[in-house]
Write a structure and sequence with these properties.
Length: 204
């Protein structure tokens, strides 16, 4: 892969994680919480969202070792107590990020399936990488492992008495995610090529 494609791929990853976080912020704003707005996070300016490890180091390493970039941005803050919908508000905010990545992947995927003439060789490669990146971000974040978005969606369906268990697990920080990545991600991530083919009609 040439240098230009590499740079574009890293930029696609960066803007994909930015879209993910901005979607969280706007979902919270829609539900009444303006924390992200007050902190200047409702913007597509990547500088406002960049995390040194997740937005620079990890994408470079993952691209070098795996062939496509993966990473994350600084989480957009929100206050669940400000949300108008107390029962499902946190779920809606959590789901907004992965949903944004799914929308991006679907739009690009369908464009390849139905309008392949729009893309040349390099363009098709970059769009394909964008689909893979966004599918990966969506699937990874939907896993019910704290502190990922999927865990917040999962806890929303449990009774209030489960809150103590939630706090105990969330206090472990990044450890559950590391365990998940080491043990299960290779299995879960294996469906991404299948999803790519379903969207695009092109074998990965």
């Amino acid at each position: 892969m040439d240098t230009t494609t590499t740079i574009f791929s890293l930029l696609v990853m960066l803007f994909s994680v930015v879209l993910h976080e901005v979607a969280h912020g706007y979902a919270a704003l829609f539900l009444g919480d303006r924390t992200a707005e007050y902190q200047g996070r409702l913007t597509l300016n990547p500088i406002k969202h960049m995390d040194l490890v997740g937005s620079v180091i990890v994408p470079l390493l993952s691209f070098t070792l795996g062939g496509y970039a993966f990473g994350w941005a600084k989480p957009v803050p929100f206050n669940p107590h400000n949300l108008r919908n107390k029962r499902w508000g946190e779920l809606i905010v959590a789901a907004a990020g992965p949903l944004m990545n799914i929308v991006v992947a679907v739009l690009f995927g369908l464009s390849i399936r139905f309008m392949p003439s729009l893309f040349g060789g390099a363009g098709l490669e970059i769009v394909s990488i964008a689909i893979i990146i966004n599918l990966t971000l969506a699937l990874f974040n939907l896993m019910p492992v704290p502190p990922l978005d999927g865990s917040k969606i999962f806890w929303a369906f449990l009774p209030a008495r489960a809150m103590r268990a939630r706090r105990t697990i969330e206090n472990l920080g990044i450890i559950p995610v590391l365990i998940f990545v080491m043990i299960l991600w290779s299995l879960v991530g294996s469906v991404i090529p299948y999803l790519f083919t379903v969207l695009t009609g092109v074998r990965f």
